[in-house]
């Protein structure tokens, strides 16, 4: 087992807490409160190819998630050859970490280079599909930030293009794929440690910091709404942790509850689903991360199975020095605290590289990537009363 386990021995009688220590942590580490440019790192990511065996390019740095995508691919052995992004301030750090990369003035220069296998991008959400269509038409595979679409029409266009070209339109659902605890929880569930999954609850508060956000962030036609956007993370986890291939949206709500200066911003969203496995799923998303929290959001996931339960504390363990990336697992025998920081890495990126080279689907199936986006957009539409 790769993660560190802390077994908690439970006495048969009632537990009495005689000394309760409350840790008070003030606001510091301001960089960790910037969710838009949050880039997790792990030395545990396995290298799957030799230098130069997998060449990729990066474009459209409109969202900071692009840095995690580049880091994940490079960390698995990929070679960044090109950058297309007119704003030099957005890619200076990338060039420093990838000295062999070259900035190009025309996106077509990337598309015309047969050595480039994959283009990874984080364009404005409403433009991600059009970028992807160009990439697939050029005979390359595409990895985009979530959400991959803002409309169901774009999704249908992408499905047709994938069928026509045979290329991959992949999505970096980073709340699981760039979370060591989130990823490892999926492996534990797949191993059957908690039995069949009955329920998944995702709670995802985010730090707004409105003054740091670009204009498009507040225009619904451009970002797609809260359930379409950050909600797509949650729907992808629902599919993964339950082992489902589809689901039905029972209830959805989106609202602006506390930001009247930004009327098109959904600052609160929630949805309830029943998956095709019978599992019940619920998520709550918001832009009300408390100012006193050390990080940009206390993202948590709760999974109940027929033989046990899991809680994932992804980014922080509130008021404790232990940090995030922790799993709390309870089965029929014991309680366990599993520390995943620096232990799991980000296996998705290595698997994706090998999938592209071997034309397999081990990292994520195309159907899964599209279904998560579809369910999130259906929920958004219901939440808007459409």
Beta-strand content: 15-25%
The largest sheet has its strands arranged as 1-15-14-13-12-8-11-10-9
What is the mean predicted local confidence, pLDDT?
91
CATH topology of the largest domain: Dihydrodipicolinate Reductase, domain 2
Number of domains: 2
Percent of residues in helices comes to: 25-40%
Structural class: alpha/beta
Shape: globular
Order of helices and strands: EEHEHEHEHEHEHHEHHEEEEEEEHH
CATH superfamily of the largest domain: Dihydrodipicolinate Reductase, domain 2
Reported CATH architecture of the largest domain: 2-Layer Sandwich
Give me the number of helical elements. 11
Please give the alpha-carbon distance between the first and last residues.
47 Å
- Please write the CATH class name of the largest domain: Alpha Beta
Q: Tell me about the biggest sheet?
A: 9 strands, mixed
- Low-pLDDT stretches are 6-30
Please give the number of β-strands.
Answer: 15
Summarize this, please?
This protein is α/β, with parallel strands linked by helices. The protein contains 11 helices and 15 strands.
Detailed description of the structure:
By secondary structure, this protein is an alpha/beta fold. It folds into 2 domains: 39-172, NAD(P)-binding Rossmann-like Domain (Rossmann fold); 176-346 and 378-383, Dihydrodipicolinate Reductase, domain 2. Helices cover 28% and strands 23% of the residues. It contains 11 helices and 15 strands. It has helices at residues 65-75, 92-97, 107-111, 128-137, 152-165, 174-177, 180-190, 220-223, 231-242, 347-358, 366-383, and strands spanning 4-8, 55-61, 79-84, 102-103, 116-122, 141-145, 169-172, 197-205, 247-255, 268-275, 280-286, 300-305, 309-313, 326-330, 335-339. It has a 9-stranded mixed beta sheet, with helices on one face. Strand 6, helix 5 and strand 7 form a beta-alpha-beta unit. The termini are far apart. The model is unreliable at 6-30 (pLDDT under 50).
């Amino acid at each position: 087992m790769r993660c560190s386990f802390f077994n908690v021995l439970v006495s048969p009688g009632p537990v009495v807490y005689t000394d309760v220590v409350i840790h008070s942590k003030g606001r510091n580490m301001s960089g960790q409160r910037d969710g838009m440019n949050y880039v997790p790192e792990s030395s545990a990511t396995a290298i799957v190819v030799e230098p130069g065996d997998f060449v990729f390019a990066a474009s459209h740095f409109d969202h900071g998630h692009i840095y995690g995508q580049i880091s994940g691919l490079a960390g698995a052995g990929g070679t960044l050859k090109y950058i297309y992004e007119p704003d030099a301030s957005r890619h200076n750090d990338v060039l420093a970490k990838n000295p062999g990369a070259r900035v190009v003035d025309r996106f077509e220069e990337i598309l015309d280079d047969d050595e480039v296998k994959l283009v990874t991008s984080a364009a404005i959400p409403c433009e991600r599909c059009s970028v992807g269509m160009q990439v697939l038409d050029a005979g390359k595979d595409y990895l985009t930030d979530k959400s991959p679409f803002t409309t169901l029409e774009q999704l249908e266009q992408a499905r047709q293009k994938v069928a026509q070209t045979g290329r991959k339109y992949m999505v970096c659902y980073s709340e699981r794929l760039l979370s060591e605890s989130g990823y490892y929880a999926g492996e534990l569930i797949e191993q059957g440690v908690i039995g069949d999954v009955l329920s998944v609850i995702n709670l995802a508060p985010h730090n707004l910091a409105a003054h740091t956000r670009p204009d498009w962030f507040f225009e619904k036609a451009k970002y797609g709404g809260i359930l379409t956007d950050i909600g797509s993370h949650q729907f992808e986890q629902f599919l993964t942790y339950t082992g489902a291939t589809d689901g039905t949206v029972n209830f959805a709500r989106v609202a602006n509850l506390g930001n009247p200066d930004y009327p098109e911003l959904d600052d609160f969203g929630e949805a309830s689903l029943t998956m095709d496995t019978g599992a019940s799923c619920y998520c709550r998303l918001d832009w009300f991360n408390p100012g006193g929290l050390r990080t940009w959001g206390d993202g948590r996931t709760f999974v109940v199975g027929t033989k046990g339960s899991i809680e994932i504390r992804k980014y922080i363990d509130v008021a404790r020095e232990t940090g995030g990336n922790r799993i709390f697992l309870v089965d029929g025998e014991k309680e366990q605290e599993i520390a995943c920081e620096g232990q799991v890495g980000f296996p998705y990126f290595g698997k994706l590289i090998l999938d592209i080279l071997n034309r397999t689907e081990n990292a994520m199936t195309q159907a899964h990537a599209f279904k998560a986006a579809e369910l999130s957009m259906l929920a958004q539409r219901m939440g808007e009363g459409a």
